[in-house]
Automatic annotation (TrEMBL):
One Pfam family of this chain: GMPPB_C
Boundaries of every Mannose-1-phosphate guanyltransferase C-terminal domain copy: 253-333
Source organism of the structure: Streptomyces zingiberis
Coiled-coil segments on the chain, per record: none
Protein name, as recorded: NDP-sugar synthase
Protein family per UniProt: Belongs to the transferase hexapeptide repeat family.
């Protein structure tokens, strides 16, 4: 097993306040573009050929990752003119694969952070003699995912993408977004039109009697679909809860990148990342947050579970809690921003412009 397809296209991103210029897979998590973690983990599992299937902003991936040789990979890029959906994107890159018809090909959703044992997924696939093997995980609320019930042998019995009614919620096992496909199954996906692997390919295969196998694995798993999840994932990478060979430095409470200036009495905790050239002022505290390159955190600011974009400025004593401040935005002194608020790129909020608590 040597090759993989990484899906990084589609409807884009809910990280928009930051990603007007940077597509989500390139937003830094623990100091490097998120995609680096997936690529490094695939490499560590023995993958040496990766095809990046994308439908947007392809021009930002190639200059950064090049031919993949820095990562020990052979990396290729395929860009869809119009988004082809997950299945269409997979089919669209089939001609780039080198595997024979019965050989396993790995496929990853590009927005998942996980400690999945990739080799174990391939072994399960081979042992079961499956056509497709899916990594499954258990979540409390499965409604935003693909539900995948299995029988006692691990054989998939149904695939229900984004269930709409309570009756459809038949399991808490969900599609975790990593698959092993037999190459021949990839070739059988219709070509040249949008196809959803979740809504068309998997249900169709089951109906045709194909063997879909599920491997339930309760290792670290996070869908980085929201800014809140993205910040959490970055912190978990720094803390070492989410394993990745691409974290640039030792795991611990904080990661301070080259050229960042942190005042001696500033407190950085909970997997906080301070990007290259960023500055953190005296008495500031930053917990479980990501501060991107060149950003400035003012004296006495208190930042929790938040994302501060590149070159953004957070004024003195300002409080951020579960907030996203877009690249280049300026939040003046004594503001209080909470509860999922998103400040768009380059926006300016004057001093004491927004508060939740009393005016004291
Ligand atoms: N190239 C390409 N073209 N990639 C696409 C396209 C497309 O048209 N559409 C989606 N993708 C990529 C996305 O970039 C993402 O990496 C992956 O395919 C899944 O698409 P999402 O849009 O993120 O789907 P989701 O999060 O709602 O649901 C998917 O992931 C869940 C796990 O996080 C499904 O696979 C669910 O079944 C699954 O539970
Ligand atoms: Mg997703």
């Amino acid at each position: 097993m040597t090759e993989a397809i990484l899906l990084v296209g589609g409807k884009g991103t809910r990280l928009r306040p930051l990603t007007v210029r940077t597509p989500k897979p390139m937003v830094p998590a623990a100091g490097v573009p998120f995609l680096s973690h997936q690529l490094a983990r695939a490499r560590a599992a023995g993958v040496d050929h990766v095809v990046l299937a994308t439908s947007y902003l392809a021009e930002v991936f190639e200059p950064y990752f090049g031919d993949g040789s820095d990562l020990g990979l052979h990396l290729e890029y395929v860009t869809e003119t119009d988004p082809l959906g997950t299945g269409g994107a997979i089919r669209n890159v089939a001609s780039r694969l080198r595997s024979g018809p019965d050989e396993p090909v790995l496929i990853f959703n590009g927005d998942i952070l996980t400690g999945l044992d990739i080799r174990a997924l391939v072994d399960t696939h081979t042992t079961a003699g499956a056509d497709v093997t899916l990594h499954l995980t258990r979540v409390e609320d499965p409604r935003a995912f693909g539900l995948v019930p299995t029988d006692g042998d691990g054989r998939v019995t149904a695939f229900l993408e984004k269930p709409q009614t309570p009756e459809e919620i038949v399991t808490d096992q969900i599609n975790a977004g990593a698959y092993v496909f037999a190459r021949s199954v990839i070739d059988s996906i219709p070509e040249g039109r949008p196809v959803s692997v979740e809504r068309e390919t998997f249900p169709g295969l089951l109906e045709a009697g194909a063997h879909l196998h599920g491997m339930v694995d309760s290792t670290y798993w996070l869908d980085l679909g929201t800014p809140r999840a993205f910040v959490r994932g970055s912190a978990d990478l720094v803390l070492g809860r989410a394993p990745s060979p691409a974290v640039p430095g030792a795991c611990g409470d904080r990661l301070v990148l080259d050229g960042a200036e942190v005042a001696p009495d500033a407190k950085l905790t909970g997997g906080t990342v301070i990007g290259a050239g960023a500055r953190v002022g005296a008495g500031a505290s930053v917990d479980g947050s990501t501060v991107l390159e060149g950003a400035v955190i003012g004296e006495g600011a208190r930042i929790t579970d938040s994302l501060v974009g590149a070159r953004a400025v957070v004024g003195p004593r300002t409080l951020l809690h579960d907030a996203v401040v877009g690249d280049g935005a300026t939040v003046g002194a004594d503001n209080e921003l909470r509860d999922g608020v998103r400040v768009w790129c380059d926006t300016h909020i004057p001093a004491a412009g927004i508060r939740f608590s009393s005016d004291q």
